[in-house]
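Run folding on both entries below.
>entry_1
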Amino acid sequence: MSEITFTDGNFGGEVLKSGVPVLVDFWAPWCGPCKMQGPIIDELAGEIQGVKVGKLNVDENPEMAGKYNVMSIPTLVIFKGGEEIERMTGIQTKDDLAGKLEKLI
């Protein structure tokens, strides 16, 4: 599955009502560490089946960033059944993220 672009408008349907676990990368284009995290998110989206993986630009979608108290970026949040089950701040390795997601499938 390819990476999904999450927005304030589609967050409820794509993330909260998803029948599969979802990894959301809260990011911004001016954020250096986010630029390093981005390719890892892109790779995961193409490699792991049974989950949704995508990004939410906090500058363009302040409602969801505020609702989930994203204070620093990159912040990666895993949702399952519409609930936040894990939060990571800062750059995460592909292996760590893959391991966390594969346990949820």
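>entry_2
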Amino acid sequence: MATHSGISGLVKVAANTVAEVTSWTLDQSNSLIEDTAMGDTARTYLAGLDEFSASIEVFWDESDTNGQVALTPGSSVTLILYPEGADSGDTYYTGTALVTSHSVSGSFDGMITASIGATYTGAVTTSTV
């Protein structure tokens, strides 16, 4: 069984690598459809539709115009997440995503950071480089 370090991971907006990424998360969920009827002794469900969302944490870089700056709320982007890097044979996740949030925060004794949220519209494809 293989394990991987996140040190080589990266995020791309189409062909452009997002600068200063510190972490990212891909969430997949499925909405359940209840099909419980009168007379049943327990609730029952069917699988519904899949939903995919992503969150990206970065050190804020206002000069990253094709990466961080392109991830503004309301924009539709091709969002590609690479867990282990972009070398031949590496796995990645891709799909069209709508950016839902972009917040920037800072403190006197730390780096200025940004958090970006996105929801994929449609399925996320898993592929290899």
